[in-house]
Amino acid sequence: MEIRQLRTFMSIVKLGSFSEAARQQGYTQSSVTSHIQLLEKEMGVALFERLGHALMLTSAGEQLYGYAEKIIRLDDETHAALQHNVEPEGILRLGMSESITRYRLEHLLSEYALLYPNVELHLTLGTSTYFQDLIRKNILDLACCLEENIDEKDLTVYKLWPEPIGLLVSPSHPLAGKRLVTEQLLSGETLIVTEINSKYTMLLTEELEKAKVKPMRILEIEQLHAAKTFAKKGLGIAVLPLVAAQDEITKGSLCALDWSDTPWKMQAFMFHHKDKWLPAPLKLFMKLLWERMPLSKEANKNER
């Protein structure tokens, strides 16, 4: 018998249906049915019966409900007491894009490390698709990345902040003086990207293909700093989150082109597996993020 099975059982009783319980808990209806079947098999009794359209508890189900309430209340109290009285410790495994790590959450990560010195932070850099795979394998606890949208039923997703993407060039680049840059003007140019499989890179190349425009080449450079350096030397057009080039734009060593359209409007998201138990280190990281990032709090005020 598992706690989650008892929670599913209680949810069905309170909501009156398997489908509503599945919706509230974020499970598929087949998962909810499986939870109850496993409970009934272990107990050796039927817990529900249908009378017409009504779902009713059997006498054994009524007995189990009383015990389930006590068990779940005790489980909640145990977690609350341990998390309140014990200094958080363990490993927190995070996945983040480089731009989010360096230009959005660097100070937050440092603050978290100072606040909770017994928590060991493991940070992996990558893209959304890569992180989703690691989350499903329980290799990561939480991921933050840039996407257009994340609509995966097995993930719990939080919208953070909008993240504009820019085309960045040296002030001496021929396109730097253009009032409006169209797809056609990118023909024969070198595009510099840090992640060839990032969503905004793929969306840009799709737009160019639709316009029947071919860049001379797409140059993948893993490090943001190196990509900006190449662009500053006039070796191509860097496709990057604008936040990663704010210092260079302010100093005048890079220019953001006035792009004719923004088909790749990115959004920062945070997500974990919907079935994951959230340990204290993870909850505290998420809480700190909400407190320190006002845009994320505003974005989720009606979603959390």
Q: How would you describe what is shown here?
A:
It is a single chain. A 5-stranded mixed sheet has the order 4-3-5-12-6. With 304 residues, it is α/β, with parallel strands linked by helices. The chain folds into 3 domains: 83 residues, Arc Repressor Mutant, subunit A (Orthogonal Bundle); 88 residues, Periplasmic binding protein-like II (D-Maltodextrin-Binding Protein, domain 2, 3-Layer(aba) Sandwich); 92 residues, Periplasmic binding protein-like II (D-Maltodextrin-Binding Protein, domain 2). It is built from 12 helices and 12 strands. The model has no long low-confidence stretch (mean pLDDT 86).
Let me know the number of strands.
12
User: For the record, what is the CATH homologous superfamily label of the largest domain?
Assistant: Periplasmic binding protein-like II
CATH topology of the largest domain: D-Maltodextrin-Binding Protein, domain 2
In helices, the fraction of residues equals 40-55%
| Dominant shape | elongated
